[in-house]
Every structure is written in C-alpha cells, then in structure tokens.
Specification:
Blueprint (H helix, E strand, L loop, with lengths): L5 H5 L5 E5 L7 E5 L7 E5 L2 E2 L21 E6 L3 H4 L6 E6 L5 E11 L3 E12 L2 E12 L8 E12 L4 E16 L8 E16 L8 E12 L13 E19 L2 E16 L4 E8 L7 E21 L2 E12 L6 E13 L3 E12 L3 H5 L5 E2 L7 E14 L2 E20 L6 E21 H4 L6 E13 L7 E2 L6 E14 L2 E12 L2 E2 L2 E2 L2 E2 L4 E2 L3 E12 L2 E8 L18 E15 L1
Parallel strand pairs: 3-6, 21-24
Antiparallel strand pairs: 1-2, 3-4, 5-6, 7-8, 7-35, 8-9, 9-10, 10-11, 11-12, 12-13, 13-14, 14-15, 15-17, 16-17, 17-18, 18-19, 19-20, 20-22, 22-23, 23-24, 23-26, 24-25, 25-27, 27-28, 28-33, 29-32, 30-31, 33-34, 34-35
C-alpha cells in the first residue's frame, strides 16, 4: 500500500476515520463508526497503551510501521472483554510474530526536506527470539510550522517453548510544528511528546492462562507560541501521565460443545501537570526546564472481572457474558457491562450474525480539567454510556472475502466540546443523547486465486460506510462528536506493470457532517463553513530485485485541498522515494 505510517494505513480500514493534524502522522485522531477519538481503545500486542490525558495522544505508538506484522480491528463496543474505555472499537497492533531471522534496512527521501531511515532485525538464540527496530525521520514541512522530527526505538522478545515469556520495551520522541492544532487564533503552536512503554506476559499451558503486566509513561510539552510570546503568556503546558496495568484470563470446558472464560483487568492512571488536575501538596520540578513545575495532579483506578459462556451447536454459536467493573472515579463504583453475540452458518460460505453490548467511557483528564481562554473542561462530567446493536452477513470463499452490516448505537451523556457562538470558549459538555446508525459493506478480491494465470490484476478491495446521527450541530457548534463521516468509500488496487514492477493505488472519498469557523489572519468569519466532500488518490510503484525493493510514491496525487479539522492545513501532492534491503539470516523457526 502507498503508506509510510500507521495512521495512513488505518485510514483505509472499513468505517475508520483518521483526522490528521500533523504531517506523516505526527498527530492523528482515530475513531470507528462515528465515535470520537477518545472512544477507541488502542493495544500494542494486546497491551492497553491508550492515553488518559487525551485521545489526541492515542496514536503515539512507539513502533515503526516496518515492525508491524498485522493489525486487528474490532468495530463496536469491546467493554466486556477490554474494559470501560473500549467504547466504540479496539485496535490491536501486532508486532511479535516474525518467523525467520532477518535483517531489513529502509531509506526514504522526498519533497519538503523529508527523510526517513529505519532498520530492524529479527533473530533467535536457542529458545529465545528477539526483534530490534530503530527509525528516525524528519521534514521541513509542506507549509509554515508543519515541520517535524521523530525517533522510534522498539524491542520485543520471547523465551521458552511450551510455556513462554513475551516482553517488549519501546521509546518514542516527536517534536513538531502544530499549525493551528487547538486554536486557529494562534497558529504558531509547537508540541513535543515522549512515550516510554514496557510489558511482559507469561503464557502458560494451563487453559490459556497468560498473566500480563505493563507500564506506560507519556510526556507532553505544548507551546501555544513556538517562538516569541506576548507578555500575558506565562508558561508552556507540561504534563506527564503514568499508567500501570495487569490482566489475565483462562477458560475451562463446561460441556462437549461449551466453554467458560473468566478474566481480570486492573489499571491505575496518574497525571502530573501545570494545567490538569487538583493542587499538589508538593510541586514537582519539570526536568530540563528552569522554573517550571508540575503543580496539579490526579489519580484513578479501574478494576474489572469478566466472565463469558460460549456454546457451539452444529451451525449455531452463541456467547453471553458480562464485565463487572470497579471505577474509583464513579459515585456508584461498580458498573455492569453485559453483552450477547450469536451467529449461524448458512451453507459453506455464508455466516449471519447479531450482537448487543453495553459500554461506558470515563472522561479524560483534559475533558475534566483543561481551562484557558478558549477551552474549559468540567470536573463534574458524567461518563459516556451506550448500548449498541448490530447484525450482518459475511461471505467467504477462496479469493473472495465480503462483509455487510447495519448497526445502531444509543448513546447517553456523550461528551463533546461545544459552543453557541464564535465569541464563546469551547466547553466540555455531556450532550444528553446521541444515536448513531450506520451501514457498511466491503469486498476483497484476490484475482490471482480467482483467475489462475492472470498476470495483471493482483488484488482489489472496496469498502463503503454510511453514518447518520439523530442529533445535528445546528443548535451549537460541535468540535468533535457530531462531525462524523457521513459517507466514506475506499478503493485499493494492486496490479503488475511489467516483470518485477508493480503498482498500488488507493482512492478515498469522504463526506463529513458539520462545519467549522474559518479564520483569516487570526480573525474568525461570522458564519460556519461546512466541510466539503473530497477525493484523494495515492500511488506507489514497487520494483523488486532479489533482496532489494525500490519504491516511489505520491500521496494526494490529485493535489486536493481539504481539511480534516477546520483551519488545520493538509498536505497537497507529496512525492517520496526510497529503497529497502531485506535478507534472511537463517532458517525459519
């Protein structure tokens, strides 16, 4: 695919919405099926790396695209298995499944001073496996204040055979121009983030029992003024969050065709900040910054026990379960999330399914506590709640994979940042009820399987999604929740050009609800500008020669002018090219 970062790749998944701000995925908000960016849970090899400060940092994933083996996407609530913040979908990024010792080196360059260097190696020593990856990239930016620098370091390993220890550790640092990210009134914003993550899981041979622990620390330095600041501007925003968690599950047979699964999940979240939280008794110095202190903070804990019974009888399968969750931030403390899934096999290739699930999301620390001249949080926000129902049909046979589904989410106390006029600050608010209904369909064709001997077309994938919310933003301006993608259609084509030369095309049509207040020279217009529909086209050419891959790419080949968020510019046509060297160092394991 013609993509060079994780957000570009996920943007082509069915019914996902990637709203980009920074270049090359420096900051991108991901949502699924019309949810907000705070409602998607992100996992790295099954470990929860979502950020409690704000969902804007959920894509600060400290792993390079070249290290990713596959991505699993759960569309719809996952609370009864993954906890309360798996509100509208889960994305699990898998990196640790390479089967052979290998070495890979990639170099890329392009317009606007773009360069990227990465190297990865996978190898094994006796009963241990190891994966190492490092990457460094930068660009001068396609327009004013869109430059960036990024560093990624990642390691994962395993030890053992029948019982196995899996572990990973990673570090990411990004510094980027944040042109109009949070307010177009002051476009010269700048942001520096750092992510440290480590985890370990021990897979036993006892009924799937695999306890795990993980730790994540995230630093965020936000500068409203990158260089010269006015006299009234006193300090940059400094935050760091710590997350410590543990989870495990196991199963046992309850009959010849039934299985009982139980599990737990515990998660502790902490923030220290000069902007978010309650006053600290003791101020904490910000490392490397004279005179700056973390003066505020907050902690909260969640713990859940999940149980599920699954039954398979001939062509019919059903699973029912619930999660009992303790949330220290809630007055009632204990919340129950039930769910039911059923499916029936129609012949050899068709499968019909239906499900219903209840879910909940806690407000982020930004929702609760952020407060400045343009945005005001609310410490009394209630959690979001929803019940989602879905039914669909899947069709699979060699060379064809297709899917069709309809769903509806009944949302209560949904959280959004709203205002009634351009002179008002954005206010975090529980919008009473928002119901979102949708339809989606996709088909993927492997032409080499369908038409043996075909020498031109390799794969063809098409996806279309339609969403409708029963509450519009006419009575107020919505910053996030109501600006859903009404229509999204993606077409991916891979074909041979000549001998070892192939081409991949990606087309995406998007039509977004809602609008934004356009700014000109720091002055807002009087009325709202609607989001215009747009079409973008990306192209990648690949030439393979033994251990070498040469590639040339063009993103936004049509040079389409568009915005994902109002007033935040998106790159026009951007050319890049590079090469990759890949060699196997030994036999496959």
């Amino acid at each position: 695919m013609p993509v060079r970062n994780l957000s570009e790749l996920i943007s082509y998944a069915l019914n996902t919405d990637i709203r980009g701000r920074g270049s090359s995925g420096m900051q991108a908000d991901i949502s699924i099926r019309g949810g907000s960016f705070d409602q998607t849970l992100v996992l790295l090899n099954g470990m929860n790396i979502s950020d409690p400060q704000t969902g804007h940092h959920n894509m600060d994933i400290p792993v390079d695209l070249s290290s990713i083996n596959r991505i699993e996407i759960l569309k719809g609530p996952g609370a009864r298995v993954f906890g309360p913040n798996a509100f509208n979908g889960v994305i699990n990024i898998i990196t640790n499944e390479k089967k052979a010792d290998q070495l890979s080196v990639t170099a890329m360059g392009g317009q606007y001073g773009l360069y990227s260097l990465s190297a990865s190696s996978a190898f094994h020593i006796r009963n241990t496996t190891h994966t190492l990856q490092a990457s460094n990239s930068a660009s001068d930016g396609f327009t004013h204040n869109t430059d960036y620098k990024a560093l990624n370091l990642f390691y994962s390993g395993t030890a053992g055979i029948s019982q196995r220890l899996e572990y990973q550790a990673s570090y990411m640092k990004k510094a980027f121009g944040a042109n109009s990210f949070y307010t177009p009134k002051y476009p010269d914003q700048y942001e520096i983030t750092q992510t440290i993550f480590a985890s370990a899981r021990y897979k036993t041979n006892f009924k799937g029992f695999a306890p795990a622990v993980y730790f994540r620390r995230h630093y965020d330095e936000f500068r409203l003024f990158r260089d010269e600041a006015p006299a009234w501007y006193k300090s940059h925003n400094y935050h760091y969050t710590d997350v410590l968690g543990s989870n495990a599950n196991l199963w046992t047979s309850t009959g010849s065709k039934s299985k009982l699964s139980v599990g737990y999940d515990v998660r502790y979240e902490l923030i220290r900040s000069n902007k978010l939280g309650d006053s600290l008794d003791t101020w904490i110095p910000v490392k490397g910054v004279d005179g700056a202190f973390y003066t505020l903070g907050k902690e909260r804990t969640s713990a859940g026990l999940f149980i599920e019974e699954s039954v398979n009888i001939k062509k019919f399968s059903v699973s029912a379960g619930l999660l009992a969750s303790y949330l220290s931030a809630l007055p009632g403390k204990i919340t129950i999330y039930p769910g039911l899934d059923a499916a029936y096999q129609l012949g050899n290739n068709f499968r019909i399914y239906a499900n219903a699930n209840r879910t909940l999301r806690l407000p982020t620390f930004t929702d609760l506590y952020y407060n400045d001249a343009t945005s005001k949080g609310d410490p009394n926000l209630k959690p979001e709640e929803a019940v989602t129902i879905e039914t669909g049909l899947k069709y699979n046979l060699p060379g064809i994979t297709s899917h069709m589904a309809i769903f509806k989410r009944y949302g209560h106390n949904m959280i959004d940042w709203v205002r009634t006029s351009v002179t008002d600050p954005w206010q975090a608010t529980n919008i009473t009820d928002i119901n979102v209904a949708g339809f989606e369909t996709s088909v993927a064709l492997n032409m080499e399987e369908l038409v043996p001997g075909n020498s031109f077309l390799k794969t063809l994938t098409f996806g279309y999604a339609y969403l409708k919310a029963d509450k519009s933003s006419d009575e107020f301006m919505s910053r996030y929740v109501l600006d859903i993608l009404k229509h999204k259609a993606d077409l991916l084509v891979n074909h041979k050009v000549w001998q070892n030369l192939s081409a991949s095309w990606a087309f995406s049509y998007q039509d977004r609800e809602g609008g934004y207040i356009k700014y000109e020279n720091g002055i807002p217009e009087a009325s709202e500008t609607p989001y215009n529909p747009f079409l973008v086209m990306d192209l990648q050419l690949n030439y393979k020669l033994k251990k070498w891959l040469f590639f040339a790419e063009a993103t936004n080949l049509l040079n389409t002018e568009y915005v994902d968020y109002g007033n935040v510019p998106q790159a026009g046509r951007w050319f890049r090219m590079g090469l990759r060297f890949n060699t196997f160092l030994g036999k496959a394991q």
